[in-house]
Amino acid sequence: FPVLARILAKLKLLYTKLGKDALTAAMLTDAYGWVLFTLLIPYSNIGGKPLLSVINCLGTHPIVGAFVFGLILPHGKFAVMVMEMSDDFVSGILCPVFFAGFGFRLNMPFLLKQDSAGLMMLIAVLLCIPKVLSSLIVTFFFGMPARDGLAIGLLLNTKGVMAIILLNVAWDKKILDPYCFMVMMLAIILMTVIVSPLISAIYQPKFRFMQSQLKTMQKLRFDMELRVVACVHNTKHANSMIHVLEATNATRVSPIHVSVAHLVELTRHGTAILVSQMDHSDSTVGTET
């Protein structure tokens, strides 16, 4: 889900209908994966290791404890504050250490020496086809364009931290041998890398941002309301924006409707993209005619 949100934000599709549908489907599949992960791990081989936490006492993986902790946090300013305080530490220290350990387990020379490495990669890539076909069937059933179904199917094939955690747990539990582990990890990396170029090819910018010729000011009737979005970054821009709006010379016959948007600069973290800025109580959004 976080990887998909970053891809959609990079492609400027996060707040489109396609982006919302893809995020909803990704949330459902991730929730289903967490449920299976929680239920199936206790039945795997523990390997005789000592119990390290309460979650281990319950028979599941410690990562589930962190997930449950996030679920029980009340939605509001406190949750946003916790994420903002922990985001730098998690993204700057814990995640690089985790991915470095994952990289140490990949042995590319050993994988390339195997005769069936190419066949295994082909099979792993072909496993992406069922998601694409199922998305096309669902979009056809609901009367959506086939291009949307193809894009949603490709976006759902993006793999994030959850897939890497599952494979690392399978490695630790001796469920996968090193060869299968490396093939599956390379398949995950390959599928995630090729999704963004494919979506860019399907949703080309000239079609994505095409302007409707019937919604320009030249086609607007004189007695119709002109809607304007005034974007300000801080209070210094307010006076200049007011002067620009006054220059439109709005009247009762030809009014204008102004929506003021307070722009907030986003950081590089995923929480800044997905979490609403609830702590900016001094920002104002209003309209004037």
Automatic annotation (TrEMBL):
Principal place of residence: membrane
Transmembrane stretches, start-end: 22-41, 53-73, 119-144, 150-171, 183-203
Gene3D superfamilies attached to this UniProt entry: 1.20.1530.20
UniProt domain Cation/H+ exchanger transmembrane: residue ranges: 56-198
GO CC, any one term: membrane
Keyword terms of this UniProt record: Ion transport, Membrane, Potassium, Potassium transport, Transmembrane, Transmembrane helix, Transport
InterPro entries linked to this entry: Cation/H_exchanger_TM, CPA2_transporter, Na+/solute_symporter_sf
Localization (cell): Membrane
Membrane topology: Multi-pass membrane protein
Biological process (GO), any one: regulation of pH
Molecular-function GO terms, alphabetical: antiporter activity
Protein family: Belongs to the monovalent cation:proton antiporter 2 (CPA2) transporter (TC 2.A.37) family. CHX (TC 2.A.37.4) subfamily.
Protein name: Cation/H(+) antiporter 15-like
Origin organism lineage: Eukaryota, Viridiplantae, Streptophyta, Embryophyta, Tracheophyta
